[in-house]
Amino acid sequence: METLISIVTPTYNVKEELLDTLLCVSEIKRLDPSIEYLIIDGNSQDGTLELITEYHRKGVVDRFISERDSGVYNALNKGIKMSAGKYILIVGAGDTLVPSKFKKVMEIVREEAPDVVYGDQLMIDPETKKVRRCFIPGPFSIEKLNFGWHPPHASTLVRADLLKSIGGFDERYRIASDIKMHWQVFSKANTVVYVPEVLSIFRLGGMSNASLKNIVKANVESYRIAKELKFKFPAFVVLGKMLWKTKMKFLTPFVKIDEEVRQFLERGVMRA
């Protein structure tokens, strides 16, 4: 069977977080066997590799490697090279996909074959599992890029050939390379489909949100990226990105979560 989607997860000493991701991918692969799951591990020493090996034996993880790397984007580039799917989806350890919503994405990919498909995301507290922020990007327009717009990475599928045509992730940037990738991909995409559904659940506490210092670094990198990509007003692009995040945080209490997603969250994100 032809591989339609390659889901790629980079890992490093994330044994506790990774189980939720493995369980949700297992469910999605039961719904559609044309999905492959790749894990690129950075030589973990906390039991992560043993967990990956266990789920490789179970058939959830199709392929994996474990070796030292120079950072998360180096790991992701390895995963892109290993992938066999027509589309690539990046999912972090601890992040989860909502299986019932993912069906719609599969239908769109098969029937329309767009360059990019993306949807919404909820961000949760890793301890309480409560929703702290929403990420609702809305329909795409090229003008939005000038305001720092980008979609949530775990809810965005990109055609593999398009992602490879830009060289994958720029490893010069340590925190914001995923933003550069999105700005490049959406600038080049001919067909983009927005799915107004919560496709993924993101655990807060990622690299760009880990501390005030990293937030500053992420914005500095975003500014450098905006200059490199020749945005007319790079500082405005970064300001727009920050305002977009603030807007989403403000709107979160007013966002209606449908019953399927609510049940998914209430049962502990796949831990029934």
Structural class: alpha/beta
Low-confidence blocks of residues: none
Report the total helices: 9
Biggest sheet descriptor: 9 strands, mixed
Mean pLDDT score, rounded? 92
Termini separation comes to 31 Å
**How would you describe the oligomerization state of the chains in this entry?**
single chain
Helix percentage: 40-55%
Radius of gyration: 17 Å
Quote the beta fraction: 15-25%
Shape: globular
N-to-C SSE string, H for helix and E for strand: EHEHEHEEHEEEHHEHHH
Q: In total, how many beta strands?
A: 9
Describe what you observe in this structure.
This protein is of the alpha/beta class and 272 residues long. 42% of the residues lie in helices and 20% in strands. It is built from 9 helices and 9 strands. It has helices at 15-31, 48-57, 72-82, 99-112, 160-165, 177-188, 212-228, 234-251, 259-266, and strands at 5-11, 35-41, 63-66, 87-90, 96-97, 116-124, 131-135, 156-159, 192-203. Strands 1, 2, 3, 4, 5, 6, 7, 8 and 9 form a 9-stranded mixed β-sheet that branches. Helix 1 packs parallel to helix 2 (48-57). The longest helix is centred in the last third of the chain and has 18 residues, at 234-251. The radius of gyration is 17 Å and the shape is globular. The model has no long low-confidence stretch (mean pLDDT 92).
